[in-house]
């Protein structure tokens, strides 16, 4: 099974999108990228000091030659998000933007109204918007109406590790938007969560904390990459329908010690 | 005159453009992007943008993100 696939004009080598934050060290980040070979890596922008603390990180990321997905993390308004996206486009030389407009501090739940506002502005400016969103069906439809080709519903709140909180809603999105690229973004904790998302037909998974905070991030990154491949293969192969009763897998015909029922 | 650079107050000369500000504050040749009073300023416009008193400037660089 070829792992290569496309989003727009970009050929991606994997369906794992890996975040680069919160690793114990830059060395461990590099090892995690090496171990998992993600299709995209996410990056951000922060205030730079004169010492240039962000330059070393960027020099490391560049050497992997993996497509970059900048984010607007930490933005609480459409205005902040749009300006951040424009700065990211210049620095990273890509039209891709993972659009985050946060509406609630406690859950880091996206603000759907700010998200729509920013999406409309960014698409008008030529961006390829990857909206970080809740799993709300109507919000998804509005984003598609604005021109989004990619939707990134959360599995659970960022960094929570809870997995797929509402698989029903995620399945609905898959069913209702068969031609859109769907990526579960945020909340995954274990590789099995990623496999579950891929098994229901999601196109990719974006995760960070589950790898960065694992006991061995590089090994966990590899585990997620394998789970995503496994889930994708299962989806393509066609998973059997679950049923309540047993069905013997070994044929019973001509089994030894078979006793024909005697007729009275 | 006083300006706010990445949230901190600084004093700079009048008629300073963004290129000059970046050079004088150690950002020359670094990978950075700039916003002035909340609006993105493309690199090609640095020379033309003269900073005014009380302007708020953000200078950002690549950073780890999820």
Itemize the secondary structure elements and their pairings.
The complex is a heterodimer of chains A (264) and B (66).
Chain A: E1 5-7, E2 10-12, E3 16-19, H1 26-36, E4 40-47, H2 53-64, E5 68-70, H3 78-92, E6 96-99, H4 112-124, E7 128-133, H5 137-146, E8 150-153, H6 167-176, E9 181-185, H7 191-199, E10 204-207, H8 209-212, H9 217-237
Parallel strand pairs in A: 3-4, 3-10, 4-5, 6-7, 7-8, 8-9, 9-10
Antiparallel strand pairs in A: 1-2
Chain B: E1 2-5, E2 8-11, H1 18-24, E3 33-36, E4 39-41, E5 56-64
Parallel strand pairs in B: 1-5
Antiparallel strand pairs in B: 1-2, 3-4, 3-5
Task: Give a description of the structure.
The complex is a heterodimer of chains A (264) and B (66). Chain A is built from nine helices and ten strands. With 264 residues, chain A is α/β, with parallel strands linked by helices. In chain A, helix 1 links the parallel strand 3 and strand 4 (40-47). Chain B is mainly beta and 66 residues long. Chain B contains one helix and five strands, in the order ββαβββ. Chain B has a five-stranded mixed beta sheet, with no helix packed on it. Strand 4 (40-47) of chain A pairs antiparallel with strand 5 of chain B, so a sheet runs across the interface.
**Morphology call of chain A:** globular
Order of helices and strands of chain B: EEHEEE
Q: What is the typical, i.e. mean, pLDDT of chain A?
A: 95
Overall SS class of chain A: alpha/beta
Low-confidence segments of chain B, ≥5 residues, pLDDT <50? none
């Amino acid at each position: 099974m070829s792992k290569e696939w496309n989003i727009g004009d970009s050929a991606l080598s994997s369906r794992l999108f890996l975040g680069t934050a919160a690793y114990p060290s830059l060395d461990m980040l590099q090892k995690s990228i090496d171990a998992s070979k993600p299709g995209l890596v996410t990056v951000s922008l922060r205030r730079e000091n004169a010492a240039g603390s962000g330059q070393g990180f960027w020099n490391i990321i560049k050497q992997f030659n993996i497509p970059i997905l900048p984010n607007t993390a930490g933005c609480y308004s459409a205005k902040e998000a749009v300006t951040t996206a424009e700065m990211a486009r210049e620095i990273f030389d890509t039209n891709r933007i993972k659009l985050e407009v946060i509406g609630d501090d406690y859950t880091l739940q996206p603000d759907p109204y700010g998200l729509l506002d920013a999406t409309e502005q960014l698409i008008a400016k030529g961006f390829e918007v990857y909206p970080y969103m809740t799993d709300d069906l109507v919000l998804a439809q509005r984003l598609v109406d604005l021109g989004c080709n990619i939707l990134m519903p959360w599995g659970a709140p960022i960094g929570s590790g809870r997995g797929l909180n509402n698989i029903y809603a995620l399945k609905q999105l898959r069913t209702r938007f068969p031609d859109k690229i769907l990526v579960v973004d945020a909340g995954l904790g274990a590789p099995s969560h990623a496999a579950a998302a891929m098994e229901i037909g999601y196109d990719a998974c974006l995760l960070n904390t589950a790898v960065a905070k694992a006991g061995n991030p590089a090994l966990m990154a590899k585990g997620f990459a394998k789970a995503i491949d496994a889930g994708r293969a299962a989806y393509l192969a066609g998973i059997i329908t679950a049923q309540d009763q047993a069905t013997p897998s070994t044929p019973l015909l001509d089994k030894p010690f078979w006793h024909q029922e005697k007729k009275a | 005159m006083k300006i706010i650079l990445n949230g901190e107050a600084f004093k700079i000369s009048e008629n300073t453009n963004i290129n000059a500000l970046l050079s004088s504050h150690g950002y020359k040749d670094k990978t950075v992007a700039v916003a002035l009073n909340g609006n993105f300023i493309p690199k090609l416009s640095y020379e033309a943008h003269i900073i005014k008193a009380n302007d708020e400037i953000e200078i950002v660089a690549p950073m780890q993100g999820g």
